[in-house]
Amino acid sequence: FVPSKQRYEAYKKYAERVEGAKSEIIRIGSIISDKKGTETAENNDNVIADPSDSIYNLRALGLMANSFLASENTGVSNQLMLARWYINEMYLRIGDIKFALYNGNSAEADKSYGCLKKAMNSYLSLMNRVVTNKVGDQFGYL
Question: Read out DSSP for 16-43?
């Protein structure tokens, strides 16, 4: 059990970053549909950043999961490990998309984007399980 005060504080701190991560994932989808994700793109808006870039807020997703799913009494739970796995999957899929578009393989980029969206939606579903009315509004899916 994680106290609602701890979840509320984490929500207040990280909810905006989660929305930013969702926006970046949507932006990746538009880049894929435009087929402009290579390093040589003229417009920086059409370049997919490295997966470790802070623009994706993956670290914030992990910190929020820690605050939502772990307490001093419970420690690391299976749910927290699953949330970390989803975050890792997002990181890997962003790299796969960047690599596929750089090599001109839009079919592989589309496939990886589908997996990226599923990982993000699964993460959000896991977080929404513990977002009560006292904590805040539940996150929307991609």
Answer: HHHHHHHHHHHHHHHHHHHT--STT-SS
